Amino acid sequence: MDKWQQQEFPMSLADFDFLRNLAYSQTGIVLPERKKQMVYSRLSRRIRFLKLNSFSQYCHYLDNNTQELPEFINALTTNLTAFFREKHHFVYLDKQICPQWLAKKQKRIRIWSAACSTGEEAYSIAMTLYGQIDLSLFDVKILATDLNTQVLETAKKAIYSTEVLSTIPANFATKYTKRLANNAQFSIKQRIKEAVHFKQLNLLQPWPMSGPFDVIFCRNVFIYFDSDTKKRIIKKFRALLSDGGYLIIGHSESINDFTTDFEFIGQTIYRARNRTAPC
């Protein structure tokens, strides 16, 4: 007998195909055969919670209960993040991009964290901006979106374990965070929180914002998509970026094979070409 039929919750090949096809249609995430154990592990928690006996029952439940779809998506999406993760991106924002805005006397600044997870990336962006400019004198908005509704709730609360406080530069930690009474957690100060606006967004569905954005962070997301999905999303990003705006992606990602609309700056940073300029 197939080992997947002998486990706590039997899962047939048909069950796995149903689940990965649903994941792809709803999120664009590709789940190859090697991800079967991950799918089993993450969805088993939902099956236990719902008091079901097999993946077949769970597939049937998903097919007949639309309210389960967000829980299904939340269970499957990966949310690895950290403050100032891939530090060179924040150095570039601090040392290169912010001075460009100041030199142009640009007052309107829009940044989008397109897969913000529990908020660390968006708050790192806000701290970096505050280190260079007085946000009260500029029209600054940081949009932070994620597919997963659960991580967005954590992001909005802006309360984190003190174990990760060391990942924030010491001068920023002093200025923009405060330890809570239990000393096991810290919170992001209000002026940083006010710069960030969290929204739930599925990148495969219509986007309500009109832009233009000056910088879009979309890091470690393209690795989950197939080529067609990547092309569609990159094209939509370009449509929302101002000429000369920046797209910042993850360290193991590249968009060079999917578009000629961007100039590669280095270290997974791309600049949008002028729409009237030749490629």
Structure description:
It is built from 10 helices and 10 strands. By secondary structure, the protein is of the alpha/beta class. Helix 2 packs across helix 4 and helix 5 crosses helix 6. The N and C termini lie far apart (56 Å). It is an enzyme of class 2 (transferase).
Quick take:
The protein is α/β, with parallel strands linked by helices and 279 residues long.
| H/E series | HHHHHEHEHEHEEHEEHEEE
Number of domains: 2
Approximately how much helix is present in the residues?
25-40%
**Main sheet characteristics:** 7 strands, mixed
Distance between the termini: 56 Å
* The CATH H-level homologous superfamily of the largest domain: Vaccinia Virus protein VP39
Count, helices: 10
Per the CATH scheme, the topology name of the largest domain is: Rossmann fold
User: Which stretches are poorly predicted, pLDDT < 50 over at least 5 residues?
Assistant: none
